[in-house]
Amino acid sequence: MKKIAFKTLGCRLNQYETDALASRFHSGSYEIVDFNQQADIYVVNTCTVTNQSDQKSRQTINQAHRQNSDAMVVVTGCMANNYKESLLESKNISYVVDNERKAAIFGIVEKHFRGEVADPEGFDRDVFSYEAAYKTFHTRSMIKIQDGCNNFCTFCIIPKVRGRATSRPAADIYQNIRSVVEHGFKEVVLTGVNIGRYNDNGLNFEQLVENILALPGDFRLRISSIEPDGFSDRFFQLFAHPKLTPHLHLCLQSGSESVLLRMRRMYTAKEFRAMADKLRSLYPDFNLTTDIITGFPGETEEDMEATLQLSRELKFSHIHTFKYSVRTGTRAERMPDQIPEKLKNQRSNAVRKVSEVNKREYFTQMIGKPQRLLVERFGADGVARGYGQNYIPIRLKAKGIEKNTFVDVVLDGIHEGKELEMTAVLL
Questions:
Q1: Number of Cβ within a 10 Å radius of residue 10
Q2: 8 Å CB contact between 189 and 141
Q3: How confident is the model at residue 357 (pLDDT cuts 50, 70, 90)?
């Protein structure tokens, strides 16, 4: 039995694809081991969204080679699309597999060990031909519903490395969810590059979500990172359903109207605020998290203050903060007034401080309120940890509870650790 190890960098879409590949190799009688262990095959699912992502991807590829110089190293993901030629020249890499053929990695490895020609280019392109993942690295199950993007934001390389937007057939999505629920998963997370633009022969994202909520089984549904593309009132009303978690990671990027315009985003800060206000008016405890880019070309102090002010007012409980990173071939690469790295760092730190204050305020607001905790793991101290429906990290000291089960709790405090968590007691 050959040993295979996986490492995923970047987004939840990559996580879904790695989980699906791991399941396929497990069913094919390969032993899945930790990436830090000796293995016969290492699969590195890379990210290229920023320069830092490129650096981490390269470090991970080199780590695999150092651990076993005789191992097969398969590099896939967005960096494989963006830097394919240079990666093919590396002696430390056995195969470079683009996103469109990532699902074929099992077949490529099998051909290799049978002594056959295993050229990735000989496999069909298909971004949806993954089997339902049952052997995953997460308690929750990612479900890929869409790939690619047609927005062409001026800073973003994703349309180049993921291609144009395409949607998975709805029938396949429903069957995938039925399968993972039968495997015992309690939380399903819809993921893709731009899932709000989902469309399968006229069935849009809102209708897809409504149909998923009608599927049988004891599971809850979470929506992954989504663009604020202007949703109808019907979408907001769906969050009243007990299966749909009251949390959205709604990507803002900037609170400045002029920066959003130069980024070529498909909404204004005013429209974003209206969406957030609508959700909070319907569900006062709704949890909003977001992405923000600092140091976009031409960003002024006034632009940065507009971002900080909007972040305070909308009370995002977490802000995933990126420093703007030049991506070759994007329109922003050619823009004047590029921001110095030192100033980007200062502005990123300012956003993180707002995020920390917001998180503490939101956690304080939630004390005394019920949550349905999905137990994901137990620490060495025996404390159970997981997330409530509002995507709040919770720790619980209680006997007789098991992993991958729902537990009804009441939040009773804030735990100060490496990361803020909330404490809870059983209902």
A1: 19
A2: yes
A3: very high
Task: Write the secondary structure of the chain as one string of H (helix), E (strand) and C (coil).
Answer: CCEEEEEECCCHHHHHHHHHHHHHHHHCCCEEECCCCCCCEEEEEECCCCHHHHHHHHHHHHHHHHHCCCCEEEEEEHHHHHCHHHHHCCCCCCEEECHHHHHHHHHHHHHHHCCCCCCHHHCCCCCCCCCCCCCCCCCCEEEECEECCCCCCCCCCHHHHHCCCEECCHHHHHHHHHHHHHCCCCEEEEECCCHHHCEECCEEHHHHHHHHHCCCCCCEEEECCECCCCCCHHHHHHHHCCCECCEEEECCECCCHHHHHHHCCCCCHHHHHHHHHHHHHHCCCCEEEEEEEECCCCCCHHHHHHHHHHHHHHCCCEEEEEECCCCCCCHHHHCCCCCCHHHHHHHHHHHHHHHHHHHHHHHHHHCCCEEEEEEEEECCCCCEEEECCCCCEEEECCCCCCCCCEEEEEEEEEECCCCCEEEEEEC
What is the identity of the amino acid at 196? Answer: G
Half-sphere exposure of 311 (CA within 13 A, CB side): 34
Question: By the 8 A CB rule, do 376 and 387 touch?
Answer: yes
β-pairing, 166-167 vs 146-147, is antiparallel
Q: How far is residue 143's CA from residue 337's CA, in Å, rounded to a whole number? A: 40
Average pLDDT over residues 40-57: 95
Residues 228, 265: contact at Cβ < 8 Å?
no
Which neighbouring-strand residues pair with 378? 384
**Over the stretch 159-182, which tens digit does the pLDDT of each residue have?**
999 999 999 999 999 999 999 999
pLDDT tens readout for residues 129-159: 888 877 676 778 999 999 999 999 999 999 9
- Compute the distance between CA of residue 50 and CA of residue 31 in angstroms, rounded to an integer: 33
* Per-residue confidence (pLDDT) for residue 337, from 0 to 100: 97
Gap between the Cα atoms of 243 and 235, Å rounded? 14
- Over residues 236-246, mean pLDDT: 97
